[in-house]
Write a structure and sequence with these properties.
2 domains; 12 helices
């Protein structure tokens, strides 16, 4: 899905093609609007009572346009975060890192620093690579990566693959999509971004649609949305579905909905309308 672009239809200037001041002036309105939404979404995801993250866990991002995205800076906390917790990054430069066959940790860190719009800004999160990838998917403008306790309790279990093999109830399908995507544990950074890319490609080939949520084994979850509300709603529904899933263990284990029922729920016009209203 196309992002907001410059009035003249061009892309944003890269290093040496325009000053930082010119860039900030040109995109001031769009940049501020997206930043405000991202800060608000991130602060809500970081609320301690929601038990989604603690300390410096998790990260969030948002697309300003096709070329620029905002992401939490390395080491910053989502808890009580403000605008200073985020850094603007050139997405094409980060995607170039994904094309490298090999790269050391230091090379990746240097590449992410070089991708920042402001060279004096704090370095982007090491997970900027998978955020850049996911923000390039159709319909994705916001990404929320959290580590909810109840979700990780299941993702860290021996039977995670079986537990995340299907959907349990209609509203889970309405918000979280036709099926969960479970990615095996992979070293954070470039290896994880590549594993996510492979998982998304396989998911799309199998289901004909893109995932709305990605579960990372022994790590956490990623919610993808067109709006902050969609990311927050998906995250909340994932937490609820995992609580329900954990509860089924006391009564013989989960009974997943059939593929036919899942397809019916996902394609119903009234459910599509509900999804749109819920995720505004």
């Amino acid at each position: 899905m196309p992002r907001a672009s410059r009035p003249d239809g061009g892309g944003w200037a890269g290093p040496g093609e325009g000053s930082l001041r010119e860039w900030k002036t040109t995109v001031n309105e769009a940049y501020r609007g997206v930043l405000e939404q991202l800060v608000a979404m991130s602060a809500r995801l970081g609320e301690p009572e929601r038990d989604l993250v603690i300390l410096g866990e998790g990260n969030t991002s948002a697309a300003v346009d096709d070329d620029i995205f905002l992401i939490k800076a390395s080491g910053r906390s989502l808890v009580g975060c403000g605008p200073e917790a985020f850094v603007a990054v050139r997405r094409p430069a980060v995607m170039e890192l994904l094309q490298r066959e090999t790269a050391t940790d230091e090379e990746i860190k240097a590449g992410l620093r070089a991708a920042a719009v402001d060279p004096e800004a704090a370095p982007p999160s090491i997970e900027a690579t998978f955020h850049a990838l996911l923000l390039g998917l159709e319909g994705v403008r916001f990404v929320g990566h959290t580590h909810p306790t109840v979700v990780n309790a299941l993702l860290c279990s021996r039977d995670a693959e079986e537990l995340f093999a299907g959907s349990l109830f209609p509203d889970q399908i309405v918000l979280c999509g036709v099926a969960p995507l479970l990615v095996p544990y992979t070293d954070p950074g470039l290896p994880l971004a590549r594993a996510i890319r492979e998982g998304v490609e396989e998911y799309h080939a199998r289901h004909g649609v893109l995932p709305k949520v990605i579960f990372l084994r022994n790590h956490g979850l990623i919610a993808l949305g067109a709006t902050p509300g969609e990311v927050e709603s998906i995250t909340a529904m994932c937490v609820k579905s995992c609580r329900v899933l954990a509860g089924t263990m006391a009564f013989g284990g989960p009974r997943f909905m059939s593929p036919e029922n899942v397809a019916r729920i996902y394609s119903r016009p009234d459910e599509a309308l509900r999804r749109k209203l819920i995720t505004k």
